[in-house]
Batch of 4 targets.
Target 1
Amino acid sequence: MAAGTTVDHLTETYRAHYRSLLGLAALLLDDTASCEDVVQEAFIRVHSARKRVRDPQKTLAYLRQTVVNLSRSALRRRILGLKLLSKPMPDMASAEEGAYDLLERDALIKAMKGLQRRQREVLVLRYFSDMTEAQVAETLGISLGSVKAYGSRGIAALRVVMEASA
């Protein structure tokens, strides 16, 4: 077989890291079905291109990058769909029920949406996916210094917005 990741190595990577990749997708997307689809598609794509993954030790990094890219694509499609459809009214029993929770959640979501895309990605990978800065840099294909800068600026921006809404 030509140089590259073997099917056996990819199978072992699947067994060992499927749940962590699913968790990564879950932090970037918001529904389980989309997360599972993204992770499965990532494995399919890496399997198809496994001969190009010359160093088997980088298989997980390729998978992470593919999950991030596919999540971005899913979000772009979702945003386009939301622009085309009108929003339905929330299905709530009363105006008081859950109002405070909605306000807090809306403030955080709005603050996260207000961040630059890279800042949001760095914060999600670094703090919610519990990756090291080096792993985040490798996953996103940016330098370690960029990861630190995006993370620092993202946290500062979140702090300002959240304190102002409190």
Note: The chain has a mean pLDDT of 84.
Target 2
Amino acid sequence: MVAITTSAENRVLLQNISWQTFKTMLAEMGSDRNSRLAYDNGTVEIMTPQMPHENSNRVIEGFVGVLCEELDWEIRRAGSLTLTRDDLQRGAEPDSSYYIQNEALVRDKENIDIAIDPPPDLVLEVEYSRSAINKLRLYAAMGVPEFWRYNGSVLRVYTLAGGQYSEVETSPTFAPVSVKEIPRFIQEAKKNGEIATTRVFRVWVQEKISTKKQ
């Protein structure tokens, strides 16, 4: 067992774990917890978020909601939805996940099985300390179209093509808006408050959309 502790998150790494053991761990730990698990190639990572990690996650979630409202996109927030594929023997619980383009396909579903349902259109991982599991490979295998990674200062955006992710400057989902500027609003929220900053963010998004239409 390997443990990494920072002010933002705790990570515990377990090696040589079978897929069936991982599935048993998920069942026994249940859903009433704040830790998030990931599995790939015999390795289990258990991540427990601390305040900086979870606050960044929630603030970004609020901004994603604003983006969808202003672009007239419907959304279904799936949070840390447990994503498992028995055929791939891979599993993950992202910090946040969203159905946007495929929202209508899962709108009324209480249980989502990505073996038969579409995976989330967008997945976010907050990683103040780098995960030992290759999340790019993990989510690419699951077919997640867009992946965001935030490390506390930089937001990186990846899109899926040909089974692999490539880093891009512009989110295809929110093309009129430079979402890579989100970190500066996260920092503003620490000084001015989340509600006040969200109002400023909304005006900024509206201006970007208006400029694109001209």
Note: The CA atoms of residues 158 and 167 lie 4 Å apart.
Target 3
Amino acid sequence: MKRLNNPAGTIPGPTRREALGLLGAGVALFGAGMSRPAFAQGDDVLTEALVLRDPDAPATGNLDGDINIVEWFDYNCPYCRKIAPEIQQVVQDDGKVRLVLKDWPILGDVSKYAARVALAAKYQDKYLPAHEAMIGVSSKLTEPRIRELVAGAGIDMDRLNRDLTSNAKAIDTILARNHDQAVAFGFKGTPSFIVGKFRVPGILTMAEFEMVIADARKAKKSN
């Protein structure tokens, strides 16, 4: 797990029991007791609508699924890259999970550039190809490598350059909101997750994700 404000530092991902233990009253995560004002925007960033259903946050999997997994990630985070295919497999195998992708570029300027490129690609309906191209590499990204990867994924680079400029404010607003949410949840680095209404600040195995998803469904039924 790559840590905020400490790009070189790592901590091991929590076990399922440790992750769920961090929740406390997990099913009340979005209740008044956990809800706090946004740090930069003067609005509440921890409502279910903004965390789970932000229309500006790209999503994949079953868009009508009964459980959301929300991931905060950085393209230069090796742990994010390692876990990406496992999360996709869990989502595919389950069939009823909606995966929400929250770009959280905390590892420097190249990470910020990668996040902006991915979100700019959204304007030509190519966020997921750009995302998959960058999250699927094993080496550290550079700006030239980012451009090579997204061009290879079929992104119109002239259109991308225009969108990076014309939609810069909207892109920065999304990144600020993602950051505010991550900080408000107390996340310390990438990757970090919300599964249903459970906070999972670290890496889980595929089997552990499946168990947390099952727990989230049980919690949803009990409400």
Note: Confidence is low (pLDDT under 50) at residues 5-43.
Target 4
Amino acid sequence: MRVAIAGAGAVGRSIAGELLENGHEVLLIDKAPTAISVERVPLAEWLLADACEITSLDEAALQRCNVVIAATGDDKVNLVVSLLAKTEYGVPRVVARVNNPKNEWLFNESWGVDVAVSTPRLMSALVEEAVSVGDLVRLLRFSHGDANLVELTLPPESALAGTQVGDVQWPEDTSLVTIIRGTRVLAPTADDSLEAGDELLFVAAQAREEQLEDLLSVRREDAVG
């Protein structure tokens, strides 16, 4: 997979390093000469250019990229890069960094963003996830289809503890994608059982989140009653 990253600061370089370790091709783009540190990510391609300029993106051959990541520290730049990547070059997947939470509402399909990553929101979500059992926590927002990646730790008293995945009538527009059980990551099948303490990750429509939380948190005695 070929990935272009706009913004070669600490965030962009860190993402590039992870992707390279996983065997992907990575192009880092930045207009600041001081940001071009080839020795820090030697396996990446580097381009000194303004990612908001069509000529720069032509030089980067953005049409060949499977993913573009707008990772600069400027939300305006990230929005412009996202829009150009999607509308001018037809990049299948565009991920954008949100620096100011007040701007998060802009990072949607209208601006070409498939996934918006807000660091403050993600950090607070991870804190909530670490201390909350039985409460639904929103981790990421996907622009297409108004869907979110959400997590809930199944409480011991849940009526679904011990139930097989295939026997649960999940809400519409909801998909259980992963079960994290201790150190194990499980791709759920219909025959897998849900256990108390499981971290359940769903992709769910925002309108279904409350219904999903109610389903997972209902107590055994309430279900019986």
Note: The mean pLDDT is 87.
